[in-house]
Write a structure and sequence with these properties.
Largest sheet of chain A: none
Helix content of chain A: over 70%
Distance between the termini of chain A: 15 Å
Distance between the termini of chain B: 58 Å
Strand content of chain A: under 5%
Shape of chain B: globular
CATH class of chain A: Mainly Alpha
Order of helices and strands of chain B: HHHHHHHHHHHH
Radius of gyration of chain B: 19 Å
Structural class of chain B: mainly alpha
Oligomer: heterodimer
Radius of gyration of chain A: 22 Å
CATH architecture of chain A: Orthogonal Bundle
């Protein structure tokens, strides 16, 4: 590889290889070990460091981790809460995974999430609309939230194409604008008159129905159903192929098919669409209304989910469930063992640190091997 | 308009601008050497907690500032090890570091003060001293970048690492030093926030100012003085917004909450990714491949 090519296309660790890059037998197994190996080791290492912190607090790490598992798998509502907690993470993580495969580093999911939620809530609770039946309101709200997120995210893409602005920076700035808009919305236009603090009206008929037998809201089923859809999209369609081409050689794409700019818009629009829906699903399935504490940085946690899930839809589902489960389990374990509530955040952050470092080390080692 | 122009609002604006200006200068130093440091927000939080805890322990806010600076240098060394030494993706590493720093500082803060125990207020440093400190850092960065060989090497490494390497300059070493120094300044910004007029550490004390600082660097076209002026603009908007929260006005205060970000976005559009952008920003350099 020449120096110039290296400068333009640096070796990027984390998107090294998608699981389904079409190889045979042993190669697939070997690749799967490499792809899944780093996250598995990272989780184990993070839990090990977590154990040290737990021991430092005077608790027995094994007992605490046992309690975490019990909190997820045995405690009443443990699995249900894990599924519900994972829903927005998986929805946003799927979009982010596709964007990062195309090397479009948007970090604006948080803003699209908030804005999708608040616009859908505003429409669903408007006079004249709020009395409509749920079977009409729910799909309408999904479309509205999706469109809101889509438009908001596309701004980054259009600015990048037209003015060459950095997507990282513009998507982040737009998040702050979206948050300010949300704060104004819940303080003035859609404020619940009965509330003393800024809080939106209750979502009412637009609340998501519970899935019979599963005791989770419909949003979880939507998120799970989108996993194979995203997988097929990435592995079996022209769009998915182009996403990977944009990520690796946009010049080739332009020479052979279509301007990379159109792909930038399409991919970021997809991120916004999913993030907007995630916002609506959260308010209509979990919080019922939007207040100042509505967003707990889920849009940023979704970035961890995408990376931990190796930018693969199935990985995103597993990572989303895993991180949500860790949170739910620790909720229980912290209370029984009187541990600081911030401990689980440290463990989650350590997982992603170890993934990043592990990826870089693997790429380094492989490069050394190839050079002999 | 009288609210906007009052002396109290202006001085509040300067107060709010200082940490942002320092953080932006730290980010600028890293970026001029070609390292996109998205860990600025995390560095600020780390510096803020270190400054607070050390001031609380020693009683001297100046020692607190020093602790913030050193914490930033140590964190910067770790960051540089990953992005320069291992050549990891700078965007992902910076994000991960910030997530880690926010989580770790919350954890340490929670451990430091038991349940029901009120974190104490600490000794504070007056505004004039902090303004002087910020101006000194600003002047030092301008002098180093424009008037010294070291500054030119930093620019060369950020613009054309392959050429700089061919001329015998140490690309990796320069990036290490720039990242460590820039990170130290960013963490100092956090310490200034806490050891300054605030005198208190709270959860989310930096409130996204590290991200603002990163945007300001682009807004300022990677030049130190416009960075500081941009921070002043941000500080004034912030002050007006805080002032309006207490009063009922025609203009919602959220407009001023969003204004600095909108202004930055417009500046980005007007400026684009122009020739001032360090050409090798965010690109790892491996001399064995060069």
């Amino acid at each position: 590889m020449s120096a110039v090519a290296t400068a333009i296309e640096p070796v990027e660790p984390f998107d090294a290889e998608p699981l389904d890059a079409g190889a045979s037998g042993g190669a697939v197994v070997r690749r799967a070990v490499v792809v899944a190996g780093v996250p598995v080791v990272a989780v184990a290492a993070a839990l090990a460091v977590g154990a040290l912190l737990i021991a430092r607090e005077g608790a027995n790490p094994l007992a605490v981790y046992g309690e975490v598992l019990r909190g997820v798998f045995v405690a009443p509502r443990g699995l249900r809460n894990t599924a519900i907690g994972a829903t927005p993470l998986v929805l946003m993580g799927l979009g982010l995974a596709i964007a990062y495969r195309a090397r479009l580093f948007t970090i604006g999911a948080e803003g699209q999430f908030v804005l999708g939620a608040v616009v859908a809530t505003a429409v669903a609770t408007a006079g004249g609309v709020r009395d409509l039946p749920g079977w009409l309101l729910v799909p309408a709200c999904i479309v509205i939230a999706a469109a809101t997120g889509l438009v908001w995210s596309s701004i980054s893409a259009l600015l990048a194409n037209r003015f060459n602005t950095s997507i990282v920076i513009s998507s982040l700035l737009l998040t702050y604008v979206a948050t300010a808009a949300m704060q104004w919305m819940i303080r003035v236009p859609i404020k619940d008159p009965a509330s003393f603090v800024p809080a939106s009206r209750v979502i009412g008929n637009a609340a998501l129905p519970t899935v019979p037998g599963l005791h989770v809201h419909l949003g979880f089923l939507i998120a799970v159903a989108l996993v194979p859809v995203a997988w097929l999209l990435m592995s079996r369609t022209r769009f998915g192929f182009r996403v990977d081409v944009v990520g690796h050689n946009p010049i080739a794409l332009r020479a052979n098919e279509l301007p990379a700019g159109r792909m930038v818009v399409a991919v970021l629009a997809l991120v916004g669409l999913l993030s907007g829906v995630a916002g609506y699903v959260q308010v209509a399935g979990v919080t019922d209304r939007i207040n100042a504490e509505f967003s707990v940085d889920l849009g940023y946690t979704a970035i961890i989910v995408a990376l931990l899930g190796r930018l693969h839809p199935l990985g995103v589902l597993l990572a989303g469930l895993g991180l949500a489960g860790l949170g739910i389990g620790f909720d229980v374990a912290e209370r029984t063992h009187q541990l600081p509530s911030t401990l689980v955040g440290v463990i989650q952050a350590m997982i992603i640190i170890f993934v990043v470092v592990g990826d870089a080390v693997v790429v380094r080692l492989r490069a050394r091997q190839e050079r002999g | 308009m009288d609210v906007v122009l009052s002396v109290a609002t202006l001085s509040a604006g300067v107060r709010l601008a200082l940490p942002v200006a320092l953080a932006a200068l730290g980010a600028l130093l890293c970026e001029r050497a070609g390292v996109l440091n998205l860990g600025i927000e995390g560095l600020m939080v780390s510096g803020a907690l270190a400054g607070y805890l050390v001031t609380d322990a020693t009683g001297s806010p100046w020692v607190g500032l020093l602790a913030g600076l050193l914490t930033g240098a140590v964190c910067g060394a770790v960051l540089a090890l990953v992005v320069v030494g291992l050549g990891a993706n700078q965007i992902v590493t910076g994000l991960a570091f910030t997530l880690m720093a926010v989580a770790a500082t919350s954890f340490i803060f929670q451990l430091s003060f038991g349940i029901g125990q009120n974190p104490p207020r600490i000794e504070r440093i007056g505004m004039p001293a902090l303004i002087v400190l910020t101006l000194v850092v600003l002047a030092a960065i301008i002098v180093v970048l424009r008037g010294t060989v070291a500054g030119l090497v930093v620019a060369a490494v950020g613009e054309a690492p392959v050429a700089a390497d061919a001329l015998g300059y140490h690309v990796a070493r320069t990036r290490y030093v720039a990242t460590i120094a820039g990170s130290a300044i960013a963490a100092l910004a956090g310490a200034v926030l806490v050891c300054g007029p605030l005198g208190l550490f709270i959860q989310n004390v930096t409130a996204g100012r590290g991200w603002v600082a990163l945007a300001l660097v682009v807004f300022a076209g990677w030049r130190p003085l416009p960075c500081a002026l941009g921070a002043l603009l941000f500080g004034l908007c912030d002050a007006v917004q805080l002032r309006l929260q207490g009063t009922s006005t025609e203009i919602p205060y959220e407009v001023f909450l969003a204004l600095p970000y909108v202004v930055t976005l417009v500046a980005l559009v007007l400026r684009g990714r122009n020739s001032r952008t360090p050409a090798a920003l965010g690109v790892p350099f491996d001399r064995r491949l060069a």
